[in-house]
Amino acid sequence: MTEARRRRIEEVLRRRQPDLTVLLENVHKPHNLSAILRTCDAVGILEAHAVNPTGGVPTFNETSGGSHKWVYLRVHPSIQEAISFLKEKGFRVYATALREDALDFREVDYTQPTAILLGAEKWGVSEETLALSHGAIKIPMLGMVQSLNVSVAAAVILFEAQRQRLKAGLYEHPRLDPELYQRVLEDWLRK
Ligand code: SAM
Questions:
Q1: Is the residue at 3 inside a domain?
Q2: Nearest CA residue ID for atom 7, ligand 1
Q3: Which domain holds residue 23?
Q4: The RNA methyltransferase SpoU/TrmH type C-terminal domain covers which part of the protein (predicted)?
């Protein structure tokens, strides 16, 4: 490992945001999962969460650009357990949903611990899951088509979160506690 590579790894790790994440409810297409993880890396997400309909380990493809090496993916047995896990850690869970009563996604304060819940390509977030979340958010759609591709929706919302966090100075100092920082650093240096 060169000194430059180590420096780069540390720079990126110092910008990781342990209190911003996504939760994917049955997003099963490898190119969508891969594109979302690539966005997570760009925005500084340390760990993403998923519930996989097949019960197996989700699969990635080249769309990830290798980002799945740098963004941990925690797979939960059910959406209920995933949401409880996040709530216990103090996250507010916002479900993306194309509903009349959903908030415009720009109205959320993403500097607070936030999880963005994204739904399956065909069905979206289920009603039961929506009821477990802290609220519904949507990206206004002004065209003919009803919804965006799930990875595009993830990017639009996560870059708003990045914008708010940049403004709040949250990328300026390491956000991981020293023990976790050291653990992740050792893992990343082995990659
Ligand atoms: N028929 C589905 C529905 O009504 O939710 C469409 C699902 S959409 C193709 C897949 C996922 O992308 C959604 O569950 C949501 O997570 C996200 N999504 C797509 N367009 C969105 C929008 N305009 N606002 C918020 N989320 C959106």
A1: no
A2: 124
A3: 18-183
A4: 163-185
pLDDT for 41? 97
How many domains is the chain built from? 1
Strands (E), the chain: 20-25, 47-51, 72-76, 92-96, 103-104, 114-118, 135-138
pTM over 0.85: yes
152 CB near ligand 1 (under 6 Å): no
Q: What whole-number distance in Å separates Cα of residue 20 and Cα of residue 170?
A: 11
Kindly compute the dihedral angle of the four CA atoms of residues 77, 79, 139, 28, in this order, to the nearest 10 degrees.
30
> How far apart are the C-alpha atoms of 188 and 191, rounded to whole Å?
5
Q: Supply the CATH number for residue 125's domain.
A: 3.40.1280.10
Token pair for residue 127? 């009603």
Helix axes 150-167, 30-43, angle to 10 degrees: 10
103 lines ligand 1 (CB under 6 A): no
99: helix, strand or coil: coil
Work out the burial of residue 123: count CB atoms within 10 Å of its CB; fewer than 13 is exposed, 13-18 middle, 19 or more buried: exposed
The pLDDT tens digits of the residues spanning 22-62 come to 999 999 888 999 999 999 999 999 999 999 766 666 677 77
- Residues 55-104: tens digit of each pLDDT: 666 677 777 788 889 999 999 999 999 999 999 999 999 999 999 999 99
